[in-house]
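Example record

Each entry pairs one chain with its bound ligand, flavin-adenine dinucleotide.
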Amino acid sequence: MQNKRTDLVIIGAGPAGIFTALEMLKKGSRQSITIIEKGLPVEKRRCPKAQTGRCMNCPSCAITTGFSGAGAFSDGKLSLSYEVGGDLPRLIGEDFAQQMINYTDEIYLSFGADPRVEGVSDPIAIKEIRRKAIQAGLKLVDCPIRHLGTEKAQEIYDAIEKYLIQNGVEILFSTECEDLIIKDNHCHGVHVRDKNGEYDIFAKHTVAATGRRGADWLEKICAEHGIAHEPGTVDIGVRVEVRNEIMEHVNNVLYESKLV
Ligand SMILES: Cc1cc2nc3c(=O)[nH]c(=O)nc-3n(C[C@H](O)[C@H](O)[C@H](O)COP(=O)(O)OP(=O)(O)OC[C@H]3O[C@@H](n4cnc5c(N)ncnc54)[C@H](O)[C@@H]3O)c2cc1C
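Structure tokens for the complex follow.
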């Protein structure tokens, strides 16, 4: 198959890859951008289990891969506080992390997210819950939430997918990145495979945004090419189910708070 050339190649069309491309467009970049995604466009992501009743071990799972990435079928909750999730505040500082969250939230809004923010409407009740948490030796993490909803989230990602394509971003679906092209300590692009065979995409810049699903692959590729890498942390929570009466008030006021 014929090799290709582009300015920027992004591996993975999950949120990390999508927002990289969006940001380039927003900043008025004239670079040509190609996204490689082993899954399908968001509108074609259908799990056959709904018909067959069992997992069909598809070559690329429609639930976890494709445009919008691993959380496509989640109920789409955006935690709008730097205090929830991930290493970003440690890496870039709490204030800048919060700025980035607000900035990203604005982008979701511009693509049609519900403007309502949950968990912020009753500051007096929140204060009282915080007081009780302190008395119990707990810290209340009261995080504002934007709840997209599963179907709305898909509509938003569909709009983003169309926007990227209309603005010249090339998205190669059902295309898997197999290797990075490394020469003289530089990455010169990627080696990919689709249903017609394998070929190279040469690029000035390469962004690997392969998410949790691609983490093992990325770790292997980094080890093979001697690239320093560090795995991100995984938050593991304990879910304690209690009767509604216990948490009803907290959930009504704070929507999805955390007590730690
Ligand atoms: C069930 C579930 C529910 C969730 N709910 C929420 C929520 O409500 N709110 C929230 O904020 N977060 C939620 N998340 C977390 C959120 O989905 C992830 O944080 C986010 O998807 C990470 O984005 P990413 O772009 O880093 O990776 P991913 O979303 O994993 O995207 C990576 C993409 O890269 C592709 N890829 C990987 N390797 C290759 C390769 N070699 N070649 C080509 N393509 C490749 C994959 O197919 C995938 O589409 C949820 C996650 C899951 C699994």
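Residues 94-110 form the longest helix (17 residues).
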